[in-house]
Amino acid sequence: MSTNMEIGQVLRDRYIILDVIGRGGMGLIFLAEDNRLTGRLCALKQIRHDQDIPENLRTQTREQFYREASVLARLDHPNLPKVSDYFSLSDCDYLVMDFIPGEDLKTLMDCARQKDHFLDQDEVLQWAAQISDALEYLHNQDPPVIHRDIKPSNLKLTPSHIVKLVDFGLVKQLVPEDLTITVIQGRGTALYTPLEQYGGDIGHTDTRSDIYALGATLYHLLSNHPPPEAKRRFLYPNALQSIRQFNPSVDPHVDEAILWAMALHPDQRPPDIRTFQKGLFSGLSIPFLRPYDHRANRKLSFLSTSNDRLLVGIVAFLFIVAIFASFF
Length: 328
Prior knowledge:
Blueprint: E1 10-11, E2 15-24, E3 27-34, E4 41-48, H1 55-73, E5 83-89, E6 92-98, E7 103-104, H2 105-114, H3 121-139, E8 145-146, E9 155-157, E10 163-165, E11 171-174, E12 181-184, H4 207-223, H5 230-235, H6 252-261, H7 273-282, H8 294-297, H9 306-325
């Protein structure tokens, strides 16, 4: 039933399915009308559970979904879609959110590039201010909420010029040491994913992972060039170029702040979103080597902790896989 829905089908005697507006590995996103509130449109995020998974694991996953969906339902910020409901039908769970009209930032960037233009820096910085405010709100929750899949296509510009951070998918919880951190999404999208996130849910991801993804997103929007993947940058330290090499109209302090956010090692990034805002909007002096300087990313002093050694072990594994793949 849940995976073969038809247009016009009603879920939970309330949500009338109007269209499929998104697809992903875990399920679909539907546009629906709320028949209890005439004219209200909402987005239903479907999360499908594989029947081949052992029943006890499916039960744990669904319990986790309800526990963390309740966290999302408590969030209230103008740059986040409001989660209003969540429920299960058959082998699927559903998250009901506000439907956000408008174009995503990737579409706007692609249109500008096709015209051989760049997006206006001031406009991009206005979007960045809204996104960073939303992230500051998420990161200051108790426990902190981490999105982990910030990218241009997950940012929508509404007709009223408000940017919304969308696509709150299946949530998971990490428990690094004594701190429980609520995270949203899985491993993210490669172009915008920091190196520590490649290891999956092993306790390395924190708020600085969102800062990296935001920096990579702004890099793409201002340069019209996708940022090189973090694993490629580890293998080729000079792969990340200055934004101004593509778009000289970008202010130097904006360029430096974004590249600071994209440092490979979390300790070399801004420690929090507020510090990143100061660098981006106020020209805060970068307290160490610029992230695009390959010497900064080749420093080995970060091998002092077990977490960092494990991070480097993950990268070494990726390097071996890359070498092996080159022979096939």
